[in-house]
């Protein structure tokens, strides 16, 4: 079953591009990653998807319902964690959590208690006195305590210490195993790699790749290190060149026989050919000439 489906979803802020012609489908039970550089359009996608801002054109459906027409019903079954959590001033954590549960007309006391214990959140403190990370925890509990069918998380771990990040992802994986669909927006590659099964990459407001994380991580690009002087200008498909004393390291997507021809024409003391690491692969998608869809 399709939980999220956008068709040519487009949002312009006046003349400024937010997102253009976004086609995205997330099915039930997926742990879906949404990744892209700053300003790519991740938050705009999420806000438009949830009906928080109106699209310029195109459509967004959640649970098979149009978000512009049935927003209230849809949001009842969603847990949304915005990238910046803002709360009413002067309220204690427990009051914020109760208010959030009441707005959904649900008794979330038991689940809220459990989540606060796991995230080590002191509910007697005032929101105003909390650190950024602890405010983030309040937002997490607000998003999770009513056990929604769909979690939409916008940069959820910013501000959390590594221990809390681990606990948070443990909770998410448990929820996902129980059937919750998760849409995780992040620019932390390892978060996507370790938790998501499928991911879309957004750049300049457009989806440039959407596939299983495994497939996205596979590429014909090789990482080459050569000890010796190599006339790389004679090769096409070379990028990310790094020169160190006596050696050069680069990513290579050209023909292997061309590389070997060039290498055989010069003195080579050592040669290593390896797979690039995940970070290098994703950077390739971010680059202007890395269009892959
Ligand atoms: N309220 C707004 N008014 C005008 N332009 C906006 C507004 N909100 C976002 N934009 C623009 O839309 C584009 C996408 O921004 P968005 O915040 O969705 O990106 P993002 O991928 O979430 O970025 P980041 O990772 O930095 O949070 C950017 O060029 C941004 O400047």
Provide tags for this entry.
disordered C terminus, 293 residues, four-stranded antiparallel sheet, 32% helix, alpha/beta, 14 strands, 31% strand, six-stranded mixed sheet, binds adenosine-5'-triphosphate
Shape field: elongated
Could you tell me how far the N terminus lies from the C terminus, measured between alpha carbons in angstroms?
25 Å
Widest sheet: strand order? 6-7-8-3-9-10
What is the SS-derived class? alpha/beta
DSSP summary: helix tally: 10
Ligands bound, unique: adenosine-5'-triphosphate
Rg over alpha carbons:
23 Å
- Helical coverage, percent range: 25-40%
Let me know the largest β-sheet: 6 strands, mixed
Write down how many β-strands occur, each being a DSSP E stretch of 2 or more residues: 14
Give the overall average pLDDT. Answer: 90
Strand content of the residues, in percent? 25-35%
Low-confidence stretches: 289-293
Order of helices and strands: EEEHEEHEHHHEHEHEEHEEEHEH
């Amino acid at each position: 079953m399709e939980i999220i489906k956008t068709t040519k979803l487009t949002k312009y802020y006046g003349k400024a591009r937010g997102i253009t012609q976004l086609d995205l489908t997330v099915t039930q039970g997926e742990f879906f990653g949404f990744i892209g550089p700053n300003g790519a359009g991740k938050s705009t996608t999420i806000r438009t998807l949830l009906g928080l801002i109106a699209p310029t054109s195109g459509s967004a459906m959640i649970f098979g319902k149009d978000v512009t027409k049935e927003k209230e019903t849809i949001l009842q079954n969603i847990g949304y964690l915005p990238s910046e959590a803002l709360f009413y001033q002067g309220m204690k954590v427990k009051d914020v959590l109760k208010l959030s549960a009441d707005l959904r007309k649900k008794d979330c006391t038991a689940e809220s208690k459990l989540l606060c214990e796991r995230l080590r959140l002191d509910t007697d403190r005032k929101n105003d006195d909390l650190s950024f990370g602890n405010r983030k925890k309040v937002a997490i509990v607000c998003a999770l305590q009513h056990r929604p069918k769909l979690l939409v998380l916008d940069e959820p771990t910013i501000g959390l210490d590594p221990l809390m990040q681990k606990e948070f992802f443990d909770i998410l994986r448990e929820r996902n195993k129980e059937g919750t669909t998760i849409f995780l927006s992040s620019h932390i590659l390892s978060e996507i790699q370790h938790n998501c099964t499928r991911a879309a990459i957004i750049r300049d407001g457009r989806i440039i790749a959407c596939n299983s994380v495994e497939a996205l991580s596979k590429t014909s690009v090789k990482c080459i290190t050569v000890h010796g002087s190599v006339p790389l200008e004679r090769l096409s498909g070379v990028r990310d060149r790094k020169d160190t004393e006596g050696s050069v390291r680069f990513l290579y997507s050209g023909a292997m026989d061309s590389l070997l021809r060039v290498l055989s024409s010069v003195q080579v003391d050592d040669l290593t050919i390896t797979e690039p690491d995940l970070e290098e692969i994703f950077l390739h998608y971010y680059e202007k000439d890395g269009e892959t869809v």
